[in-house]
From TrEMBL:
The lineage of its organism: Bacteria, Bacillati, Actinomycetota, Actinomycetes, Micromonosporales. Residues 232-259 form a coiled coil. Belongs to the methyltransferase superfamily. HEN1 family. This is Small RNA 2'-O-methyltransferase. Its cofactor is Mg(2+). Residues 1-240 form the Hen1 N-terminal domain. Gene3D superfamilies: Hen1, N-terminal domain (3.30.1610.20), Vaccinia Virus protein VP39 (3.40.50.150). Its EC number is 2.1.1.386. The keyword Methyltransferase applies. PANTHER family: HEN1, SMALL RNA 2'-O-METHYLTRANSFERASE. Residues 293-385 form the Methyltransferase type domain. GO terms for molecular function: metal ion binding; RNA binding; small RNA 2'-O-methyltransferase activity. It comes from the Bacteria.
């Protein structure tokens, strides 16, 4: 598979892929070797090629016990097209070799990673079950111009089941790679490994912002999950929930006055999400913060509250999800705000586990319900990027209190509050983490509870305020 760009300087593609154009990069895969190389690399045009060299013997002998491959019967396990045609093996290689690029993360070119650039993708041989006309049905709704040319058989026997796939469009590189990660095995309609329930999470993460609204989402979901009906049903239910949330947000935005951002009705009961935002805003005001980062801002609920308060003179919302930033932009109605208001707020696409110079020098940073979405091995990178590199005067962190989950119906016997949570801390675990981070990066920390305080479990949300140049008193109070 090759990916080309004419964005100038085109060699910045190497920064986005985190692979230097002057070298050949190799990565060991379970069934062979993956290589990344650059057939051309000039300021005007740059092409990166991902080549997967499959060892058929390793493919068969390395298969896990119980895993059933699509060609596992008879000679099919030895004689097949896997070494010669793009398949889920190439998608897996793409996911491992370009992991940072798939997340939209680039420590060297963060602004470019968030920018749509001219791209051309070529996959010379791809099995296309359903005919060449299926490829445009899958890629065209995503902004691509698609060409799927059937590859003819020898001696006039007609067309084979393989196509040469070419895509052209102006997209973010991360979006392009996620489209390929999902849709290459969908067109091939086969997986080289046993599809387990965690494959749903892979699909939903890679399909964020585009799959829920895709006209062929049912076909994509069934094929990506190897036609396992239970898994496909669960995945489609999650996608339907995403569509419902987006539809509700659209209705909410339509009800707003287009020239103002309305404050919430004070008479209505305050849900926990609102109480969290109020606690964060109160802490920011107490700290006297004027320049504020909302890290992992999501669809912009806290940003809307910050914009309403004139004491916050510079506000930056940062998130790895471009879809969330698009929703935040709509929620804030940035295109309709007066110029002076518009200058106060900026939205940045960035990964919080990478250092980003654009996030340095602020009075305060907020991580509201963010840390629990980070894989534990990546927490140290987030700590370094936020507390070490961005190094604001204050950092405000909220996270669920796992002990309180027994008070929620459906969580009394275990489980977490959101399917994307990687962990949820007890009060002792949160205290240990916050004390360690404060000591490591030179902050003092105070902890609070947000929400109704339960005498046995504590409050539903934990809240830590890290500050510099204050005595490290620690401790825990209820708020």
């Amino acid at each position: 598979m090759t990916v080309s760009t004419t964005h100038v300087p085109a060699t910045d593609l190497g920064f986005l892929l985190v692979k230097h154009p002057d070298r050949v990069h190799a990565l060991e895969m379970p069934a062979g070797q993956a290589y990344v190389m650059y057939p051309e690399a000039t300021a005007q045009r740059c092409t990166a090629a991902l080549v997967l060299d499959i060892d058929p013997h390793a493919l068969h002998s390395g298969r896990k016990r119980g895993a059933k491959a699509p060609d596992s019967a008879g000679l099919g396990q030895y004689v097949n097209d896997r070494p010669y045609a793009a398949s889920s093996m190439l998608a897996s290689a793409l996911g491992k070799v370009f992991r940072s690029a798939l997340r939209g993360a680039s420590k060297d070119r963060p602004e470019l990673a968030a920018t749509a650039i001219p791209l051309e993708v070529a996959v010379p041989v791809l099995r296309c079950r359903g005919g060449a006309e299926l490829a445009p049905r899958l890629f065209d709704p995503l902004g691509w111009t698609t060409s799927a040319t059937p590859i003819p058989l020898d001696d006039g026997w007609g067309d084979s089941r393989y196509v040469e796939l070419r895509l052209t469009g102006t997209l973010r590189l991360a979006d392009a790679l996620n489209h390929l990660y999902v849709l290459l095995p969908v067109l091939d309609d086969a997986k080289h490994y046993w599809v387990a329930p965690d494959e749903i999470d892979k699909l939903v993460r890679a399909g964020e912002g585009w799959l829920a609204g895709h006209p062929e989402r049912a076909l994509i979901t069934r094929r990506f999950l190897a036609h396992r009906r239970a898994l496909a049903g669960a995945a489609l239910a999650r996608l339907a929930e995403e569509r419902r949330r987006l539809a509700e947000l659209d209705e909410e935005l339509e009800e707003l006055d287009p020239d103002t951002i309305e404050a919430p009705d004070a008479e209505k009961p305050q849900p926990l999400a609102v109480r969290r935002r109020e606690a964060v805003l109160a802490a920011l005001r107490e700290l006297g913060a004027a320049r504020v980062l909302d890290l992992g801002c999501g669809p912009g609920a806290l940003l809307a509250d910050l914009v309403r308060d004139r004491r916050f003179t510079e506000i930056v919302g940062a998130d790895v999800s471009t879809r969330s930033l698009e929703i935040a932009e709509r929620r804030l109605r940035l295109d309709r705000l007066p110029d002076r208001q518009r200058e106060r707020i900026k939205l940045r696409q960035t990964a919080l586990t990478y250092r980003d110079d654009r996030l340095r020098g602020f009075d305060a940073a907020v991580l509201m319900e963010v840390v629990e979405h980070v894989d534990p091995p990546r927490l140290a990178a987030l700590e370094d990027a936020v507390f070490g590199h961005a190094a604001p005067h204050a950092v405000l962190v909220t996270t669920p209190n796992a002990e309180y989950n027994v008070r929620y119906e459906g969580l009394a016997h275990g489980g977490m509050r959101h399917h994307d949570h990687r962990f949820e801390w007890t009060r002792d675990e949160f205290a240990a983490w916050s004390d360690r981070v404060a000591g490591l990066y030179g902050y003092a920390v105070r902890r609070y509870g947000i929400g109704d305080d339960d005498p046995e479990t504590g409050s539903p949300t934990q809240f830590a305020v890290f500050t510099r140049d204050e005595p490290a008193t620690g401790g825990e109070v209820s708020a």
